[in-house]
Amino acid sequence: MIVSCLLQVMPKIKHNGEGFHYVVYYKPDIPSVDYTQVAVRDWTQGRLEIPNQPVFQPYQFAVEAKNNMNLNLAPVNLQYYRGFSGEGSKLLE
User: Fold this and answer.
1) In whole angstroms, what is the distance from residue 76 CA to residue 30 CA?
2) Domain residue spans in the chain?
3) Which of 32, 65, 78, 85 could anchor a disulfide with 53, C-beta 3.0 to 4.6 Å?
4) b/e per residue, 53-86, with b = 16+ CB within 10 A?
């Protein structure tokens, strides 16, 4: 299964420096599990897919905007969201 996170593409004028990218934090919605972080270097990409995840499971995720100056371009306190992994393929009997 795939967990898919849609990213709001930030206009280039708001990048505030070179090397603009997103950092996506995600984890299964289980208290004892730590967040995994993935850098999305192509700022025009509006989606991140994480393959091989269980079907219809809850996840928590957040997206941070950064550049080479290592400045957060989003609020310091990240907003975490809850979503679900995609549905599985139907099985033929």
Assistant:
1) 24
2) 3-84
3) 85
4) beeeeebbbbbbbbbeeeeebbeeeeeeeeeebe
For the chain, first and last CA: distance in Å?
20
Distance CA 63, CA 55 (A): 22
Check residue 76 and report its DSSP letter. S
Strand partners, 50: 3
Distance CA 25, CA 63 (A): 6
Residue listed under structure tokens 């957040």: 62
| Per-residue pLDDT tens listing for the chain (93 residues) | 445 566 778 888 888 888 888 888 999 999 999 999 998 888 888 778 888 888 888 989 888 888 888 665 555 578 888 888 875 554 544
For residues 65 and 7, what is the distance between their CA atoms, to the nearest angstrom? Answer: 10
Say what the pTM is: 0.76
